[in-house]
From TrEMBL:
This is Phage head morphogenesis protein. The lineage of its organism: Bacteria, Bacillati, Actinomycetota, Actinomycetes, Kitasatosporales. It comes from the Bacteria. It comes from Streptomyces scopuliridis.
């Protein structure tokens, strides 16, 4: 009998998962709260109980949603990014870093598409009602259900997907950028990084295959035919990015840097 090979990265994986779970909950809660407020505004105008359905009214509140994203959701993403940054280095300042500003701007733009998504779902429902010759009150009730955050599993599920995707992107962007500045501060001309897969039933085969892949910090990983600067890289193709739970380990002086186990007095 041989014992299974020991996983030298197990403690790091567990600590990473704890940080990720916490960020995921915060981002998911913020997104769902904002969505609730947005839908509560839209519902009386787009699906009045005794008036015609008017999905075009959704865009009246598009700016409201954008403000919610910027004020409620993006700051939670920013917190995750800053938290992981400070575990890697005391160099640089995430608050004023242009890479971070760009990253958060992109994240905000991804999240701003919700009004279009709500509109599309409602139009599909109305068309289905017409096609199937359903009574108007039934169609109205179904549209009202879509326009109610807790009306079905639809929006809680979306909140989970958004939170998982955004937390991983932010964690890994924070580690990536802080490792870059840390290497600059140490005069390391060729910093490296390692891809660390999270083993669970949902792990993509391409990501399991990428486990342990080592490359220059500034060069992309090759994962399933895609080039990703880090796990969850928002510039990568959706099928290699959405709900990815892998993480990034910077390599310092030949040793992987366990970013989940570094305490920094600056928090
Ligand atoms: Zn992955």
């Amino acid at each position: 009998m041989t014992s299974p090979p020991e996983d030298e990265h197990l403690p790091a994986r567990l600590r990473a998962q704890a940080i990720i779970r916490d960020g995921e909950q915060r981002i998911g809660r913020a997104w769902f709260r904002s969505l609730t407020r947005f839908l509560d505004r839209v519902r009386p105008a787009a699906a009045p109980p005794d008036g015609p359905l008017d999905p075009n009214r959704i865009s009246d509140s598009a700016q409201f949603w954008t403000d919610e994203v910027n004020v409620q959701v993006v700051p939670e993403i920013s917190n995750v990014l800053r938290r992981t940054w400070r575990r890697v280095t005391s160099a640089g300042d995430p608050v004023t870093d242009p890479y971070v500003a760009d990253y958060l701007n992109d994240a905000g733009n991804r999240l701003k598409r919700v009004p279009d998504e709500v509109y599309a779902r409602i139009v599909v429902e109305i068309e289905r009602g017409i096609r199937e010759g359903r009574p108007i009150p039934d169609v109205t009730a179904e549209v009202q259900r879509i326009l109610t955050a807790s009306g079905s599993e639809l929006w809680p599920n979306r909140a989970r997907t958004v939170a998982r995707t955004e937390v991983m992107g932010a964690v890994n962007a924070g580690v990536f950028r802080s490792a870059q500045l840390d290497a600059e501060a140490r005069g390391d001309m060729a910093p490296m990084k390692v891809w660390l897969a999270t083993e669970d039933t949902r792990t993509r085969p391409s990501h399991r295959a990428a486990d342990g892949q080592r490359t220059l910090l500034g060069s992309p990983f090759e994962v399933g035919g895609a080039q990703l600067l880090f796990p969850g890289d928002p510039r990568g193709p959706a099928q290699e990015v959405i709900q990815c739970r892998c993480s990034l380990l910077p390599v310092v002086l030949g040793e992987t840097l366990d970013w989940t186990d570094r305490q920094n007095p600056r928090g």
